């Protein structure tokens, strides 16, 4: 027993020496950037504000708008790093969201720290809105539905009736246009103001009469093949098959 204790004592001392020489270093976390957006919220809504998700990795802000709000202007309140500034500044209205949805313009915020370092965040806005669905006016690409405008008559018109789902009941948030084969859009079509409570049907009216200066008539010229496109708040849909419009002078 004595021999065993004599052998164990040096081994124990060796282990204690090894552990006593081991040192754990604490590595401090890297300092946070001083040009960050810490919080982004939309406040021009009833009830609680709508918060955006700020992603520092790709410098983006993602906001989801409820469809029932149908906002066309938003007022963001923005919190940034201490001592930093943001341009446009907090509280600056973002106007004409329809232009953002329909044309895809960029919305950016530049944060500048006290030492002058800048970072640009891009705002992305999505709406929790049902997709648009439209029935085709032409059965297929080979059987094209035709319409005729006879400008030799005192009064002539055509009605383009789009049936489907997902249309906004607020016609101020809706636009109907004809699109050429090369993607060029004609001026917005005048829309019928009757039966506006039917959100499964939209009607555009193209008419001509003596003295009328309709932009669409001028753009149609001699007619051709066109596809009908509908914008409804944040959504857009274009018919796959064209229609033929003939203009007689």
From TrEMBL:
Reading the lineage from the top rank, the first entry is Bacteria
Q: Where is the signal peptide?
A: 1-22
Q: What are the alphabetically sorted keywords of the record? A: Signal
Would you tell me the protein name for this molecule? DUF5018 domain-containing protein
- The species this protein belongs to is Chitinophaga cymbidii
């Amino acid at each position: 027993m004595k021999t065993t204790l004599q052998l164990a004592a040096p081994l124990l001392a060796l282990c204690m020496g090894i552990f006593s020489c081991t040192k754990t270093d604490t590595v401090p976390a890297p300092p946070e950037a001083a040009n960050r957006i810490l919080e982004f919220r939309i406040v021009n809504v009833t009830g609680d504000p709508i918060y955006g998700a700020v992603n520092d990795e790709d410098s983006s802000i993602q906001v989801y708008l409820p469809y029932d709000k149908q906002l066309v202007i938003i007022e963001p309140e923005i919190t940034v790093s201490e001592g930093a500034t943001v341009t446009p500044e907090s509280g600056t209205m973002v106007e004409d969201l329809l232009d953002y949805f329909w044309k895809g313009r960029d919305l950016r915020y530049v944060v500048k720290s006290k030492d002058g370092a800048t970072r640009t965040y891009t705002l992305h806005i999505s709406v929790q809105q049902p997709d648009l669905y439209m029935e085709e006016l032409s059965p297929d690409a080979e059987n094209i539905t035709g319409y005729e405008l006879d400008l030799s008559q005192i009064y002539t018109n055509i009605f383009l009736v789009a049936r489907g789902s997902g249309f906004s009941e607020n016609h101020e948030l809706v636009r109907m246009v004809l699109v050429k084969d090369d993607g060029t859009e004609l001026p917005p079509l005048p829309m019928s103001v009757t039966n506006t409570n039917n959100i499964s049907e939209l009607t555009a009216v193209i008419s001509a009469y003596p003295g009328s200066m309709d932009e669409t008539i001028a753009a149609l010229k001699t007619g051709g093949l066109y596809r009908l496109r509908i914008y409804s708040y944040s959504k857009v849909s274009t018919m796959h098959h064209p229609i033929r419009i003939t203009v007689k002078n």
